[in-house]
Design brief:
mainly alpha; 2 domains; two-stranded antiparallel sheet; 7 strands; metal-binding; lyase; Cyt_P450_sf; lyase activity; Fatty acid hydroperoxide lyase, chloroplastic
Length: about 375
Amino acid sequence: MYINSGIPCVKKQVEILIHCVLLILQIKNFTLDLLKRGSKTWVPTLLKELNTMFTTFEADLSKSNTASLLPALQKFLFNFFSLTILGADPSVSPEIANSGYIFLDSWLAIQLAPTVSIGVLQPLEEILVHSFAYPFFLVKGNYEKLVQFVKNEAKEVLSRAQTEFQLTEQEAIHNLLFILGFNAFGGFSIFLPTLLGNLGDEKNADMQEKLRKEVRDKVGVNPENLSFESVKEMELVQSFVYETLRLSPPVPSQYARARKDFKLSSHDSVYEIKKGELLCGYQPLVMKDPKVFDEPEKFVLERFTKKKGKELLNYLFWSNGPQTGRPTESNKQCAAKDMVTLTASLIVAYIFQKYDSVSFSSGSLTSVKKAS
C-alpha cells in the first residue's frame, strides 16, 4: 500500500521536473532570440542614449564642475535595455521614464542584500542582514508598475514569447523583467562604473592616448562609423574591456551542483568530485593566477592583444565560461556574453570619438576635453 500510494506522487514530481527543464530551455532560447532581434537596433539606440547621457553630464559639469555618474548611468541603461530588449519606450510613461531605474534598484536590493557585505560590524551583519530573505511586499508596488509597463508596451515581444516559445504571458513578463533588471541593468550597473573608473583615472593618461589614437585611426570622429564590425578591429579597446572584466568580474561567484562524478584538475592537484556536490567558483581569485597571467595584480592594457593575448582569452572567465566559449540553451554561460564586450567597446570608442580626454573620480565625472 505504501508503494502504491507513492507512485502518483513520484509521477507528479517527475512531471514537475520535466516541465521545469523544458521551461528553462524555452527561456534560454527566448533570451537568445531577444538578443538576436535586438542587435538590429542595438548600435543606433546605444549611440542615441549615450548622446543624451553625456549631454546631461556636460550640463552638470558646467554648473558644478562635477557630474554624479550612477544616476545618469542607470537611467541610460534602463532606457537603452527597455528599447532594445523589450522593444518598449519608457518615455510613454513619465513615472517609468523618471523612476523606472529606481524601481529596479529597489527590487535588486532586497534580493542581493543577503549575499553582499555592507561593512557592518560582525556578527551584526550576519544576524541582521544575511540571515533571512526580505519580504516581497517591500517592493511589490513598484515591481507591479514595471509589470504593467511590460504588459502595455512590450506587446510584440510578449506575443512572440507565447506563440513561438510556448510561454504564458506571466512567465514571459517576469522573465523579461529578470533579464532586463538582473542580467542586463544589474550587471552593467556594476560593470560600467568600474570600466569608466579605469578609463578616467588620471594616472592612465598614456592609456587614454593609446585608446584615442586607435579609435580615431579606425573610425575617425563620425559616430556613424561605429558598429560591431568596426570595434572588432580595435584590438586595444577590446583588450581594455577584457582586462577590466578580468580584474573586476561583475558577478564574482558562481555556484552549481555536479551532474556526475568527475575529477577536477588544477596546476598541481586533482580533486574527486561526486555527483550532487555543490561547487563554487570565485573568479577574482582565478583571474589572478600567476601561472596564467603575467603580473596578475596589474592592469595591463595590451594583455589581450596579439597572438599570446588571443590565447589568454581561453582563460578569461567572467561569464560562467571562457571568453572563447559559446552560449547555448544547454549551458549556463551568459547569453549576452559577446554583446556585453562589444557594447562596452562601443562605449569606449564613442567616448574617444567625442572627447580627447575624460576624468572620473569617486563615482563622478570631473572633466572632459572635447575632441579638437
